[in-house]
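This section describes the prediction task in plain terms. A model, or a person checking by hand, is given the sequence of a single protein chain and must write out its three-dimensional structure as a string of tokens. No templates, partner chains or ligands are provided. The sample shown here is typical of the held-out split.
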Amino acid sequence: MDIEKMLQFAERAVDEIVFTNRGRHMDDLEKAVLRGTLRRKTYKEIAKELECSDSHLREVGSELWKIISEELGDKISKSNLRSELEKLQVSICSSDCVQQIDSVIYSGEPRDNSGVSPKSNCQRHDLSQMPELGAFYDRASELDTLKTWILQEQCRIIALMGISGIGKTQLARQLVEQIQSEFESVIWRSLEHAPPFAQLEADFIQVFCSPQPEDASAEKKKELPLIQYLQKHRCLIILDDIHNLCCPGELAGKYKPGYEPYKSFFRKIRTLPHQSCLILMGWEHPRDCLPLKKHSSGVGTMQLKGLDPLSTEALLRETELENREQWQMLNLYEGNPFWLKSVVFQIQELEIEPTNISSEHSLLLPENVKDNLQEQFDRLSPQEQQVLHLLAQAEEPVNLGQLLQNQTIEASNSINALHSLCDRSLIERKNKRYSVSPAIKQALHLHDSQKKGY
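The expected answer:
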């Protein structure tokens, strides 16, 4: 195997493994040990080139092999590193993949060194679970960012986060409509019923193996592990309602018992070489799917906010709400499309006048909005519930120092709960201060009253 191609493959894969597990990229010594090992050099030979001690390099190498072993689940050492990486790359670049790549070379187009076959003319899309939604309100900036991450920066996994009703599904649908032609396969699945990973994997493989009209007479394709399909073909997979994999009553992102195979799959998506992309959407995301910064090492995170004033006005204009300029209360719903549409529907159904609702303390909160928020409250850990109540009771936004002055919660628990609530989009952070929106305050008050039997 060409050593230069092996070095490119190894440096990219190992650097992402190190970043995922240690929150940093490989340093120069680690890169030197990796390159030297793949060139079958001894520690002494590598140390001589770097003018450092071979004992120190042995320590660096030992730690590097340990990190790789933990991530891949196999015992990796200096002696077997090259053979293990060669086997991995060979498994990706199967014979039919090689033939497709060679045909691209001979046609004069650039060759892709990642080992993934170029886009095929035969597309296998399954969008049967992609919801039919109404009008799309301007999210041009968010769309541009997502397209850049996926098409230009080859992001492998994207977490699209935000409170229920904020427009995650609508944005993802618009994205799919604009970029689906760039992929051999596009599959949209809802995890509303939290299927075991084996069931989801079998579902995907069935889509990939289903005969197309042009090859209906061909023999049935041999089934492969899901990750190998994503390595051989350029695929876009959207998993909606990802929060159903997470355990209620805990801080955001802890897997339910029995759902650890998803963790292993997401890890492979992050660390193994491929040109596919996985988009995860929900109220909360598994912790291992969130990078240490918003966009790094093939992983992107976008926390969706409410519509801007112009888009909010367009939404309200579409509802044909009379005297909408008098409904100042609607500004308190923070551009959440679901909340706004639900409130306007209630106003129109009951013919409510603006003068009947005079302050944020008497916000309209239709049952569907209240029930949806209460479902999210029921997922909170005890620490999160305490912190959310403290912030909801405050008349002004609270900084971290003020929050930590409360003696009923340990400082570390308060910070962890604060972080988790931010991930769930249940609190707002601005200028290092934290607050709760009027709608969530009222829903929380009603939730507490209901639990007390009022």
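For orientation: Residues 176 and 186 are 8 Å apart (CA to CA).
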